Amino acid sequence: MDDQNKNLLIAALLSFVVIFGWFLIFPPQPPQAPPASDTSTPASRPEPVAPAPVLPPDPELRRAEALARSPRVPVDSARLTGSLSLRGGRIDDIKLKEYRVSVDPGSDIVTLLSPVGSADPYFATFGWLPAGPGGPRTPGPDDLWQVESGTAVTDREGVTLVWDNGAGLIFRRTVRVDDHYMFTITQSVENVGSEPVTLIPYGYVMRRGMPKTIGFYILHEGAVGAFDGTLREVDYGDMEAFETRGPNNTRIERIAVRETGWLGFTDKYWMATLIPRQGQPFDAVFSYAVNGSTPEFRTDVLLQPVTVAPGATGQAETRLFAGAKEVETLQRYRDELGIARFDDAVDWGWFFFLTKPIFEVLHWLNLQIGNMGFAIILLTLIIKALLFPLAWKSYVSMSKMKKLQPEMEKIKERVGDDRMKLQQEMMALYRKEKVNPAAGCLPILLQIPIFFSLYKVLFVTIEMRHAPFIGWIRDLSAPDPTSILNLFGLLPWDPPAHDSFLSIFSIGVFPILMGITMWMQQKLNPEPADPTQKMIFAWMPWIFMFMLGRFAVGLVIYWTANNILTFIQQYTIMRMQGVDVDFFGNVRRSFRRKKRDAA
Predict the structure, then answer these.
(1) pLDDT tens readout for residues 138-191
(2) Ranges assigned E (strand) in 228-356
(3) CA 325, CA 368: separation in Å to the nearest integer?
(4) How large is the angle between the packed helices 388-415 and 553-576, nearest 10 degrees?
(5) Which helix (H) or strand (E) holds 234?
(6) How far apart are CA 593 and CA 599, in angstroms?
(7) Is the sign of the CA dihedral 341, 342, 347, 352 positive or negative?
(8) What pTM does this model have?
(9) DSSP for 178-197, written as a single string
(10) How many DSSP H helices and E strands does the chain contain?
């Protein structure tokens, strides 16, 4: 490998180390709450929910008291539990039965939606707006609905709510939910008056206060939507910076959708999104406002106006997804309901052409095996098999380079410090022996995007969350919980917390195995002639060991398995080419031809 190619490889590896090291040591800070501004709400938005009274500081007690402020209808399906509020008819109390806050089986189940007055208000509501000024009164956020039919929202029955404006309009809202996470909200308005009315059906999802985010640059958390096939992701800070200003200093982005679309808010693993009936135009609105001192983030769906004649009934239907971003579930809704790009609510990233196939293979292997850790190892085997033709060429080239090292040393002694002469004679030697010094770099460079893509899959997909492997590995999406600082649990003290700088030295069993296997693999490669390059390569396994020690252990397992398979491949091919290696640095060359001649 000549100096130019070595420098290229070193630059790629150092860039990799610098990028991951920077974000490991100096992770981005979560966004701060914006300052207060005008408290009023523009007329172009549906009415705001009134601020709640001061409640206890304990989050669970505060949430319980907020729920008790309104009569409620239970929600109890196969995968969801909670309630909807009769005051305003909001869906504002949803928990996910199958997901817990931590790997501890006794921990609380995950809370997704919460009512106004709780620590993190997050809810969805629906209704009608007058099409023009002076229109009829429509139900507002504090109006109390009555239950007309049904006792609970389950995956077997729905509930119909009714509200009468006392001026000739009767509003009904039927709420159903399937056996996963999709609500269907059917709204109707019956005109028992003497004049036609024109109303605009709407729905919105609101988050009050600055949502808690991970704040990591490779993950999008915030508003998200897809409109006529185009994905739109908006961070919370970007919503505050919208250039279009509505009344009372509201920041707005409005998108006219022709046929297909959806929008809402996404967290790392959870999502609440509105999905109008596909195939009809609607307006999608992202907006940011401040109510008192509290920021409000909202995504609205405004459907086409409906004119209801006297004695007639108008109707509109909107769906609400409130649940976990399980890829198979999102894909099923995408296909069955025609919701374009719904599975792209998972942040697949720039390398989506790699992350999606990697996930599909991993998920399929996990379904066959029943263990995501072994699925990662099998994925490593598949990737190595696909790259084997390149690996063969690379390792044959490295074998030839090892055989040529005595000749290269003679050239260096002969030309001295004349680098130009050295380069010329080296290239002449390569041409004579038909050696491509760059061939050894290609498999390594191809591994970098695969590595990034697998890291992305492990980081963003809920299928990896709390997925166990063997022994002490109970969550492949978290770092190896063991630590060399307490001799892997033998000493009676806890290692530094993950947010401590010292945690970079608190590496576990698998990161150490990764460093050792990387060192073993490196011993098979030709040693660089340049002392600086030699030193960099010598330290590289141990730098990676510490840098990746705090990353998802599933990624470290992949890297370790990849190192072992690479070592086996490279060692076998080099032996076939007549090269033997002493791992402690003494490279011995033996030629099969000489053995055959001696025989």
Answers:
(1) 999 889 999 999 999 999 999 999 999 999 999 999 999 999 999 999 999 999
(2) 230-235, 251-257, 261-266, 270-276, 282-291, 294-303, 306-308, 313-324
(3) 21
(4) 70
(5) strand 230-235
(6) 10
(7) negative
(8) 0.82
(9) -SSSEEEEEEEEEE-SSS-E
(10) 13, 21
